[in-house]
Amino acid sequence: MEIEAKRWGFRGKQELNAASASTVRAYLNQIIGRINKDNSSSVIRLGHGDPSHFPSFKTTPAAEDAIVDALRSAKHNCYAPSAGVLPARRAIADYLNRDLPCKLSPDDVYLTSGCNQAIEVAINVLSRPGANILLPRPGFPYYESCSAYNHLEVRHYDLLPEKGWEVDLDAVETIADENTVALVIINPGNPCGNVFSYEQLHKVAETARKLGILVISDEAYDNLAFGSTRYVPMRVLGSTVPVLTVGSISKRWIVPGWRLGWIVTSDPNSILKKSGVIDSIAEFLDVSSDPATFIQAAIPQILENTKEDFFSKIISTLRECADICYNRIEEIPSLTSPKKPEGSMFVMVKLNLSMLEDINDDMDFCLKLAEEESVVVLPGIAVGLKNWLRVTFAIESCFLQEVLGRVKAFCQRHAKKQ
């Protein structure tokens, strides 16, 4: 029997629809839904930065042992402090202190459930009526989603493909105003695979200081750099401009499912403290969830016991895969990449639709590629660049050769007749 009421006093939250519609997962779910189940070809997914399924990207035994030791000790089945357990925060501060002119303390480190929650913390803390934030285009759409949910206006500045994805600093100054709170950079770059030079970061810091805004530095792929540009963290410029660094162990240790991240304040001039941002971070964490305590407890052992040869092997593998990906894409006339990736796990690829038949745009390309070849890539529209593609190269090199062969066959099949 159906219960009748004069009026139900609840309804779904419409803001969540707008926030979720632009996520990477939302786009990939649409594309995966188009895979032809009758196609005998194995499904290969190049749309997501999670290489943990592949043997070449297995995490180090030192990390696994640290988790097992922490769990079996039975000392970490309790709730953790809101900011995280002190030994983990101290270990992360030490890990991030390399080459820093102004050293971090454990009090500068706050543990989060992965880098995504660190982004949520930053966006929530900075949101206020009428405020806006400057985001890169192309970029990581989770920032747009969090901003939409928190009613924080988004203004985009461009990364310039013809200049190796440098920040368009003239555009930054043009779009900023007295209500701008922060500028986000992602280094190494997701989705572009670029690595910012120290000179570029210094210009970003000087521009942000001139505008009176802080920098959110997304370093989810920190140290995953394998090109000619040396990786430099934005926090080395904390004395020039206040920096909030968001990061995690997910990518460098190839453990995205462990969900251990951080938000770190680099602020030797105490500007964040005086403005109340530090207090707001702590207050937000008081009302949000924590990463699992036993994973927090494993962090000191993970950071101390991971040998350099593990990192070297991952970097070597990424370099090999990036070379294969870039070179094979160059063989496909309708696809171009303006710069060989130097970091992270992605490359941006431009579609030349004038050379393709029956392909309307990047989303159409991805849907038909999934249906015909069981290959999943992310349309550029998902990261802010229409008629581009974001391709993940962090998979087994043999699979990468195969999948790019399928992409080439697809493009040949849809090539316009001369």
From TrEMBL:
<dbReference type="InterPro" id="IPR015424">
    <property type="entry name" value="PyrdxlP-dep_Trfase"/>
</dbReference>
<comment type="similarity">
    <text>Belongs to the class-I pyridoxal-phosphate-dependent aminotransferase family.</text>
</comment>
<dbReference type="InterPro" id="IPR015422">
    <property type="entry name" value="PyrdxlP-dep_Trfase_small"/>
</dbReference>
<dbReference type="InterPro" id="IPR005958">
    <property type="entry name" value="TyrNic_aminoTrfase"/>
</dbReference>
<dbReference type="Pfam" id="PF00155">
    <property type="entry name" value="Aminotran_1_2"/>
</dbReference>
<feature type="domain" description="Aminotransferase class I/classII large">
    <location>
        <begin position="42"/>
        <end position="396"/>
    </location>
</feature>
<feature type="modified residue" description="N6-(pyridoxal phosphate)lysine">
    <location>
        <position position="251"/>
    </location>
</feature>
<dbReference type="GO" id="GO:0006572">
    <property type="term" value="P:L-tyrosine catabolic process"/>
</dbReference>
<dbReference type="GO" id="GO:0004838">
    <property type="term" value="F:L-tyrosine-2-oxoglutarate transaminase activity"/>
</dbReference>
<dbReference type="GO" id="GO:0030170">
    <property type="term" value="F:pyridoxal phosphate binding"/>
</dbReference>
<dbReference type="InterPro" id="IPR004839">
    <property type="entry name" value="Aminotransferase_I/II_large"/>
</dbReference>
<dbReference type="GO" id="GO:0005829">
    <property type="term" value="C:cytosol"/>
</dbReference>
<dbReference type="InterPro" id="IPR015421">
    <property type="entry name" value="PyrdxlP-dep_Trfase_major"/>
</dbReference>
<keyword id="KW-0663">Pyridoxal phosphate</keyword>
<protein>
    <recommendedName>
        <fullName>Aminotransferase class I/classII large domain-containing protein</fullName>
    </recommendedName>
</protein>
